[in-house]
Structures are given as C-alpha cells and as structure tokens.
Design a protein that fits this description.
globular; single chain; 9% strand; six-stranded mixed sheet; 23 helices; alpha+beta; 54% helix; Butyryl-CoA Dehydrogenase, subunit A, domain 3; binds flavin-adenine dinucleotide; three-stranded antiparallel sheet
Length: 670
C-alpha cells in the first residue's frame, strides 16, 4: 500500500487528541490486568497458528466452511491453555472468532453429560468426548415441537427383561430436527425422550444413543440421519434430522445424575428435577457473551472507527467536510449502543457471578434461589440477544453502502447473531418465563411476603413523582435508577391487576396468561433494564480504576439509563412518574451527553481490544485505512480474476454485438 492514507492520518489524529485511559478501561472490561495479559497471550497463540488464524471466509463454499470449522475445532483443543478455567473459556470464544466447528459437541453435549450424568457416566463419556473419540449432539427439538417440551413425542421405554430402553420417534413430527453437529459429524446423541415404564410416563429424560458406527460412520440399524439443508447462515455447522426406529440402548445410558430407573423398573428421583434445566442456564449465560454482547461490541468498533474516517458533507455552509461521527444524528445511532454494549457486558458478568453462587448452593442441596436464577438467565438471554441483534443492524446502516459489503465485517457478525433469538429458548417464551417469576413475586408482596433478590424493589414504597428539575438531575444515577425501578414496578403491578381481574371474571389460568402475554413480555423487559442498569452501577462503584475512567463509565451508564427511559417514556408518563416537562429534560439530557462522548468514543471502542483479524473487516480496522483495504479486497474477488467473465460469452454477447452494429451503423458479421 502507498504512504499513510488520509483516513489513517485522520484516525491517528483522533487518537492523539482524545483524553482517555484506553488500557485501564481494557483492564476493567477484562476484569483485571491479569486477565488482559492472559487474553492477549491466548489471542497471540491463536493468531500465530496457521489453522486458527485463517479467518478469511469470504467466497468459501458451504463444504469448505464445514471442513474448516472442524479443522479449527480440533486445533483449538491442542492449544496449551487451561480449558477448565472459565476466564480462558470466555477468551477462547472471542479470540477464535466465528465458525469453530462442532459447537454443540463441545458446548452442549459435553456439559450436559457433566451436569446430568452420574459419576460413572461422567467418567466414561466425558474423556471420550473431550478427546473427540466420540462426537456428540444434543437432540431435543423435533420437527413438530421445540418450545413445548411436554409436547415432545420421542419415547424411551424401559424393557426390564433385557435391562434396555427402546428409543423411538414414532411419527414424522417426532423426528429430531435441528440438533447441531448431527447431520454429518455425530456418532452419539443425548436424546431427550419421554421416559415410559410399564405404560406410565415419567417426563423428559436424557439418554445417550449411539447413532453411527465408529469405524464406518454409517448409521446404525434403526437410525436415519442427515442434514436439514441450507440455512440463513452457520454453514460450518451440520444441523440435522434423526429418526429412531425402536433403537435399543443399555439401561446405563440414561443419564442418571437427577433420576434413575432400577433393575425392576422403579423410577427414583435423586435430586430436584429443576436441576435438569441447570445445564441450560449455564449455556444461556455463556451464549449471550459469545453470540450477543461481543458481536455488538465488534459492530460498535467497526461503525465508530469507520464513522471517524468517513467524511461526507459539512456542517457549516462552505466549511470543510466532516467525519460523519460529527453529525449528532450519527452519534445518536451509535453512542447509546456503545453505552449498551458496556452495560450488557458488565451485567452479563454479574449474572455469571450469580450463576456460580447459586449453582454452588444447588450442589449443596439448597434450591431456594434457583427460580430467580432461572428467570434471570432466561430473561437476559432474550433481552440481550434481541437488543444486540438489532444494534448490529443499526451499526451496519450507520456505515451506509460500505456496511452492506461482506468486507465491512457486519454480515459475518449479524448472521452469527441472527439465530440466537431462537435457539436455546425462543425469546418470547423466555421473556414469559421471566415474567411468570415476577408475577409470583408480586403475588408474594400482595400476600405480605418479603421478596428477596433482584425483584426486592417490589417491597419498597416508592415516591409517586420524580423530583428532577434539570437535565443534570436527570443524568444523576440515582434518579435514573429510581425511574427504571418505578417503571418496572408499575408494569408488574398493572399486569398483575389485569391477571387478577381476568381471573375474577371466570377465565381459565391459561386464557388469562395468553391474554396478558404482550404486557408480560414488556414487564420482563422493564425488569431486565432495571437489572442491567443497577448491575452497571454496582460495577462502577466497585471498580478499581482512576476517577477519570470511573467518570467515563458513569457517563455511559447515564446514557444507557436515559436512552432506555426515553425509548419507553410512554410508561413513565402513563404512570405520571415523570411530567411532560421532565420527559423533555430527559431527551435533552441524552442529547447533551452525545457531544461529551464524541470526544473519546474512539477510545471506548479501542478499549474492547479486538484485533483486526478477529473483526474481519476492511472498514473498521485499527489503522482506519478503509478505502485502500476495500479496494484491495475487491481486487481479490473471484469475479475479478478474469477481465471478461463467462456470463458475457454465454448470454450477453449477441445482444451487445447488435448494439455495437447499431451504434456503428454496420451489420454484424457473425
Ligand atoms: C441455528 C439453530 C440451532 C439449533 N440447534 C439446536 C440443537 O442443537 N439441539 C436442539 O435440540 N435444538 C436446536 N435448535 C432448535 C431450537 O432450540 C428451537 O427452534 C427453539 O427452541 C424454538 O422452538 P421452535 O422451533 O419449536 O419454535 P416455536 O415454539 O414453534 O416458535 C414459533 C413462534 O411461536 C411462538 N410461541 C411458541 N410457544 C409460545 C408460547 N407458549 N407463548 C407465546 N408464544 C409462543 C414463539 O414466540 C415464536 O414466535 C436450533 C435452532 C436453530 C435455529
């Protein structure tokens, strides 16, 4: 490439001007400088590895992406890192980028056995799986049912005579459909099936079923298995279908950490059945980082850097062209997302911590906090995947035409996120599960019970009116916390009143729930917004950082709170907690913060510390050299390998020759 480009000069100048402690913020994001060092070490290992550093997937076919994914999955396992360390696991998620193959094998099959198997089963299956000596999938969803687990039709019937289970998918709608790694790779599956003993059903239980021969890889007798066909994205994964026609498995293949069947066919519950869903909670907690929050941070990084180097039009008449980030409308698209990506990161970390605490309690037989954790992880999964997906598209659109190119990096990020609103619990259903818990809490409050944990604000007697009189008041963290708390509490109470009134009118519980479901989804969102904001505040309060960094994090926290309130102003006006005048002040306060954040926005995205290789972008690299990279990338496009392509010879030529003749006034000699 030529000398330093104008765009690189622009971004370097911006970095020179800004006053922000980027490295300190990086440490805060990582949860300490040790973690930053570890993350960089692992990132270096990956980016110096010939197989793992191959991030370029433009123009690869589906099959190439699939084999590349598997190659990378096997290679990751060879890295010299501590795979049991949760920080390392999270770092690996980001640093390996997208398209690591066998994600369900490593991310669901293995953890499910660890969570739901007994000690013997864990010792038998986990080492085999971790070393890729068997490849597994998690087969729950069926062609006819996904969300409604009670509707799943696969059965596992106990045969006392042979001490076996017969696993069967009795009709078309009961075939397993969607499991990742199933289509072509897996030779084992954790199959979720209705346990049947002596004609009686005992609910959904997990069974390990071998589906393919380990040497020939052909389906075993009674098994039909294959890929479900092309999808929106995730070409590196072989989501599959599975038909089981009376397949026999030994009795010890029922994962028996939670429940067991003895030789005579007696069913014994060994633990609280809710533990069955413990694995799902962990998967949800983990997936929001890799599939929602990190992608949004990446999208913000690309859009903010590009918005600095992209100059278009001027603000003053006759003035110089400005960076598009100088337009307030552009700042209003990007900065609330940037604030949200920080808020989501810290609140997700808090949820991790809570998960660890409550999981330890559960292991000691204490289940009282499990419902709260279940509601929180379901709600956070839905809220963060929904918001981050929408946010990535806003970032894409903020980059105009170039944002639509594969080379922007956005398609890769967006398509990866797209399915996250559906799998591991469809979002509406997740919001409703969260709301169900909040309704129970509200019933408790009405019946004089003191609520503990996150919804404990329902016990409080809150002020009827917000007392803010200025923009400054409305930027105050405590004022914002009260607003979010008030809104959530108001919506919970309103939904509960509606439920009670419909119930009194004689409607069934199911009808009442269905009629109120739109309000209930909103209730969950409001509660989660309060939780995210309050988590961010807690992190800032306990942050080991300079006053300057705390101040900048505080500004982001206020912006997240203000933007959330402004987006949902109708609730607070309806409740009369805010007046029309205060609503106006809240809008002004949000807009005022944009110009302050403009001064160091680049530092906020640099602090995420994504390498160019991880971002896979031409327009959002650290050096800002967007135009040269775009042109270099275009020159590499397969279509540009020949000056004249086949389409011309095969189809267009006769028409064009005629055009030539007409223009030249001569007759074709062909
Ligand atoms: C990329 C991808 C990977 C996947 N990987 C796996 C895997 O490895 N293993 C596996 O077992 N499954 C997997 N799945 C399946 C996934 O878990 C299900 O698709 C998901 O749980 C949603 O269930 P569903 O398809 O039945 O949707 P549905 O439940 O049919 O949802 C359709 C619509 O109905 C609405 N709806 C449904 N029930 C209710 C209700 N009670 N109240 C209000 N609205 C409702 C939903 O909100 C949604 O709008 C995968 C799916 C995808 C897309």
């Amino acid at each position: 490439m030529a000398d330093t480009s104008d765009e690189t000069k622009l971004i370097m100048e911006e970095r020179r001007r800004m006053d922000i402690k980027v490295e300190e913020i990086t440490n805060v994001i990582d949860g300490g400088s040790n973690n930053t060092t570890l993350r960089r070490k692992i990132t270096d290992m990956i980016q110096n590895d010939a197989i793992l550093s191959d991030m370029d997937q433009f123009y690869k076919t589906e099959e190439e992406k699939y084999s590349r994914g598997i190659r990378r999955a096997l290679r990751v396992r060879k890295l010299d890192v501590d795979f049991n360390d949760t920080t390392t696991q999270r770092i690996l998620f980001i640093a390996t980028g997208k398209e690591i193959g066998l994600p369900i094998h490593s991310g669901v099959f293995v953890p499910t056995i660890m969570n739901l198997g007994n000690q013997e089963q864990v010792e038998k299956w986990v080492p085999l799986a971790v070393n890729f000596n068997i490849i597994g999938t998690y087969a729950q969803t069926e062609l006819g049912h996904g969300t409604n687990l009670r509707g799943l039709e696969t059965t596992a019937t106990f045969i006392p005579e042979s001490q076996e289970f017969v696993v069967n998918t009795p009709k078309l709608s009961s075939m397993k459909w969607w499991p990742g790694d199933l289509g072509k790779a897996a030779n084992h599956a954790v199959v979720m099936a209705q346990l049947i003993i002596k004609g009686e059903s005992y609910g959904m239980m997990p069974f390990i079923v071998q589906i393919r021969d380990l040497s020939t890889h052909l389906p075993l007798p009674g098994v039909k298995v294959g890929d479900i066909g092309a999808k929106f994205a995730f070409e590196s994964n072989d989501n599959g279908f599975l038909i089981l026609d009376n397949v026999r498995i030994p009795k010890e293949n029922m994962l028996s950490g939670v429940a067991e069947v003895d030789a005579e066919g007696n069913f014994m519950l060994k633990s609280d059945p809710r533990v069955l869903y413990g694995g799902m909670m962990l998967i949800r907690v983990n997936l929001v980082d890799s599939q929602a929050v990190f992608p949004l941070q990446q999208a913000c990084t690309i859009a903010t850097r590009y918005s600095i180097v992209r100059r278009q039009g001027s603000i003053q008449s006759g003035g110089d062209e400005v960076s598009i980030l100088d337009y307030v409308a552009q700042q209003h698209k990007l900065f609330p997302l940037l604030a949200a990506s920080y808020a989501f990161h810290f609140s997700s970390r808090q949820t991790h911590e809570l998960y660890k605490i409550i999981n330890a309690e559960v292991k000691n037989g204490e289940f009282s906090n499990l419902p709260e954790l279940h509601a929180l992880t379901a709600g956070m999964k839905a809220y963060l995947t929904e918001k981050c997906l929408a946010g990535t598209d806003i970032c894409r659109r903020a980059c105009g035409g170039h944002g639509y190119l594969q080379a922007s990096g956005f398609p890769n990020i967006y398509l990866q996120q797209l399915a996250s609103v559906t799998y591991e619990g469809e979002n509406t259903v997740m919001f409703l599960q969260c709301a169900r818990y909040l309704m129970k809490c509200m019933s408790g409050v009405i019946n004089g019970r003191k609520i503990v944990g996150i919804p404990s604000y329902l016990n409080e007697r809150m002020s009827d009116r917000c007392h803010a009189t200025s923009e400054r008041d409305l930027t105050n963290h405590d004022t914002l916390l009260q607003c979010l708390k008030h809104r959530s509490s108001f919506l919970i109470r309103q939904a509960k009143e509606k439920i009670d009134s419909l119930t009194k009118s004689g409607k069934s519980y199911q009808d009442v729930w269905n009629i109120t479901s739109v309000e209930l989804v909103n209730v969950a969102r409001a509660h989660l917004e309060y939780y995210i904001f309050s988590s961010f505040l807690q992190v800032i309060q306990n942050m080991n950082a300079s006053a300057d960094t705390k101040g900048k994090m505080g500004e982001l926290c206020s912006l997240f709170g203000l933007h959330t309130i402004n987006e949902n102003m109708a609730d607070l006006l309806r409740d009369k907690y805010l007046s029309a005048k205060q609503a106006r002040l809240a809008t002004e306060a949000e807009l005022s913060s944009l110009s302050r954040i403009r001064k160091y926005a680049l530092g906020l995205v640099d602090a995420f510390d994504f390498t160019d290789k991880t971002l896979m972008t031409c327009i959002g690299t650290y050096d800002g050299n967007a135009y040269e990279r775009l042109y270099e990338n275009a020159k590499r496009a397969p279509r540009n390998k020949t000056e004249v392509n086949e389409g011309f010879y095969n189809q267009l030529r006769p028409y064009l020759l005629k055009g030539r003749d007409i223009l030249e006034g001569t007759k074709s000699k062909l």
